[in-house]
Amino acid sequence: MSEQRSHVYKWFIELDDGHIEEWLRAQARAGWHLQKFHMPCRFTFVRGEPADNVYRFDSFPAWKRSSDYEQLCQDAGWELVFCWWGSYCWRKPAADGKPNDIYTDTPSKIARQQRLLTYFGLTGLLLMYNLMGSSDREMDTLRMVLTGVQLALVLPMSYLIWRTIGRLQRLRRQAL
Question: Which of 12, 32, 34, 175 has the fewest CB within 10 Å, making it most exposed?
Fold first, then answer.
């Protein structure tokens, strides 16, 4: 008997607000367990027994990928669901009274926000660079479509940068 799969397209603007993780937890409680995630919004689930699983997303530079990082998470009870170019998704059974976060101390939370800010900032700079270069080129239909897509991404990327800076500032105030 083959396993039952479901593909769901769902867009989330932000990883740190918890909506995506709570949605994945609700799916697991209904017996749908995340198997894969394809950027930017395709989730693949496999049918199984309902379980109260906690999901957490993390980012770690792909060029600094470390087996120590992965081993540390696995030792803490996290199962790696997928890793794609430095973006990780971890899962573990929910435990009442025990931390359900990968990072439990303020310095590691600050480091995570700095990594996210680097990702979002570099992506935003690339978008802006491409948009500025678009005016120098002749606009055929394909280039116009690509420029439109880039313009549409500038606002959400700016929002992500702004929110990440805010979180980083709050965490730094907590650390004082």
Answer: 175
pLDDT in tens, 131-149: 776 665 666 777 778 778 8
* H or E stretch at 87: strand 87-93
pLDDT in tens, 76-94: 889 999 887 777 889 999 8
d(C-alpha 18, C-alpha 25), whole Å? 10
Apex CA 51: angle with CA 45 and CA 55, to 5°?
A: 65
Annotated domain spans of the chain: 5-93, 106-175
Cα atoms in the Cβ-side hemisphere of radius 13 Å centred on 18 = 3
- Integer Cα distance of 112 and 69 in angstroms: 13
